[in-house]
Design brief:
alpha+beta, Outer membrane lipoprotein wza fold like, wza like fold, 5 helices
Length: 204
């Protein structure tokens, strides 16, 4: 069972295009699949910030639990949920009054994306909390948790997500994907979700 799961999971993950995954999740309006280049910063991530030609403004900053960082001459910046390029623009705007001419180029890099975490619970081989350092979908999450055990119900996987002060849930149905002859319609019905930080995946 375990060997078959790994073979099928990796085959499916490799065959799914980003367009197909986005279509699969559209039924319940999930967030779109996100590429590595479009990583949005989370609380707990560690950032490297560099202003060219200004060594005094070179900093390593960890995003605080409230989603902010502090930067000299700029103050508090809300980093959570933003792209690195958006934070670069914020810092540049905050430094504008400090320069007569153009503001030197600002570079923001994510050194450690440790804020991207999710949990997998229930009937899987190795339940726990995972920090993948990249975006993953629910199929990849189950693989990281060792795959489902022989009693798992793959048609009733639940994703619980905190949105503001509310909890939302998404039902994922993966069983049809592991039948011979699975097609694009089965992938769409499966509702494969790209996970967000803080998600909990429950496999009954």
């Amino acid at each position: 069972m375990t060997r078959i799961w790994y073979m099928l999971a990796f085959a499916l993950i490799g065959s799914l295009s980003s367009q197909t995954i986005a279509q699969a999740g559209s039924q319940l309006e999930p967030p779109p699949a996100v590429s590595a280049s479009a990583y949005r910063i989370n609380a707990g991530d560690e950032l490297s910030i560099y202003v060219w030609g200004e060594e005094r403004l070179q900093r390593t900053a960890k995003v605080l639990p409230d989603g902010t960082i502090a930067f000299p001459l700029v103050g508090q910046i809300v980093a959570q949920g933003h792209l690195s390029s958006e934070i670069e623009a914020m810092i540049s705007a905050g430094l504008r009054d400090q320069y007569r001419g153009e503001v030197p180029q600002v570079t923001v890099s994510v050194i450690s994306p440790s804020g991207m975490q999710f949990s997998v619970m229930g009937r899987v081989k190795s339940p726990g909390t995972f920090t993948p350092g990249r975006y993953v979908n629910v199929l990849e999450a189950l693989s990281m948790a060792g795959g489902p055990n022989e009693f798992a119900s793959l048609d009733n996987i639940l994703i619980i997500r905190k949105v503001g002060d509310q909890l939302e849930s998404f039902r994922v149905r993966l069983a049809p994907l592991f039948r011979v002859g699975a097609d694009d319609k089965d992938i769409t019905r499966a509702n494969i979700q790209p996970l967000k930080t803080g998600d909990t995946v429950i496999v009954p």
